[in-house]
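Hey, can you fold this?
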Amino acid sequence: MTINKELVVGLVGVCASGKTTLGAKLRARGYKIKHIAQEHSFVKDMWKKIGKPDLLIFLDASYETSMQRRRLDWTPADYNEQQRRLEHAREHADLHIQTDRLSAEEVEAQVLKFLKKVGNETG
């Protein structure tokens, strides 16, 4: 069984949910990763238009966790606005992971398991 590493994997989610870390880990394994900054866009399906991913992975984190991970200068209202902007991507994601209580390695393991499953289904 081979996993199709030619597929473009899009990563979306709120700030400090783990997109950059996960992207680096997956790139190191040979995957094509598109970090899509949907949380900063007013275009609801920007993830689809610009990123054009074959698979979309949504990483989520609570406001409290985001603030612990990174010293962000934002309010709960700012966080809620990011969540609103991400609704379309969340609804269309192939995989959604709540990262609050997971290490970077645990998130990576969940994604690799998912990618292996997808590889089995498409290969």
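Oh, and this one too while you're at it.
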Amino acid sequence: MNRFIVIGITDNPTPFFPPEVLEVIQRGKVFSGGKRHHEIVAPLLPPDALWIDITVPLSKVFEQYQLSTVNCQLSTIIVFASGDPLFFGFANTLQREFPHSPMTVYPSFNSLQTLAHRLLLPYHDLRIVSLTGRPWHEFDRALIERAPKLGILTDREHTPATIAQRMLDYGYTDYTMHIGEHLGNPTLEKVTTLSLEEATQHEASMPNCLILHSPHSSHSPNLPQSPHFPQSSHSPHSSHSLFGLPDSEFSLLDGRAKMITKMPIRLLTLQALDLPNRHTLWDIGFCTGSVSIEARLLFPHLHIHAFEVRPECEAIIQENARRFHAPGINIHMGDFLSVCSDAIAAPDAVFIGGHGGRLKEILAKVKAVLADDGIIVFNSVVAPKVSIDSHRLWDEACTELGLRQEPPTKIQLNDHHPITILRCRK
């Protein structure tokens, strides 16, 4: 069984280690870390040290760990990692890969701690999001939930400039960005405070991290004064963006007011989907995107996939998502029955907003991927000009597919035709 000693280091080319750690290094035989780590600690390693570079794929690195300890008849591997190895660090990976191996960790400050100290910014309430090799979901969620102070770990795709542009695109303008580059390196370290507009033009060198800070936070006594960013009429801090989005403020398909799930119906639909207890929502036939957008704002933990066959609706949902500050909706264009869903996260909640007369086929495809006890909701409209009896199709499909129906909810708004909210479970 391997034993791991994981030592956190900064970008300083002449690192300081306490005597206990120096003794560990001097007695070591097998060492590992990134190429940059090797450059930093090479003068401190014993002459006969064996070094294993941490590169992808990690499976080959782990094979080298096993071989090296067998060949050296030793079980201890000393790993160098950036900052605090337990903070989105390599120690977490080792624990996952070698769950029964003993481990000792000697941490350093992580990059966000270092940046907060440079800014004299209290960070006990800092919300941490890692975008290093990760999608936007948790970052978008933090914005929707109005986190006043965000610490972001970046990578070459999620740069300070692209992060700032995303925030501006969706109207989250009321933040100042603090960028830390090469933190801990006495020659290259740089800390810059910028508005989001300025940050979109800033080319930050790697490695870097950033802290986003809103003036609404109560902890900003030592920070530079950030410029005032005027809020739009659809500000993410306005009350109507939190619950029940006004139908009149959506861009519509061909200006047709009937082509949107009305707000009261929309909220009842979301309630029927049991979204607080769901993980992934599919919105089939999104049209204006009103259901997806309302769900994204009310339940930002959700992963939402929206499907639509009409190509003109793609621009409409994108415009509405920006208008209501709802980043992170995954849009899939084309005939739903032809869309390959293998790479799309399986849903545990599905809303069918449009079916084009193929409700049975859609339900069959959904059932094949729906999680156990997953919920499907469909709104059936009773109107003289509607030639397809969608309620009858729903009943037949649920019976044929073995879907368990639950009591429907019937509602009529003003002079509109009655709507029945239908729900079933797998």
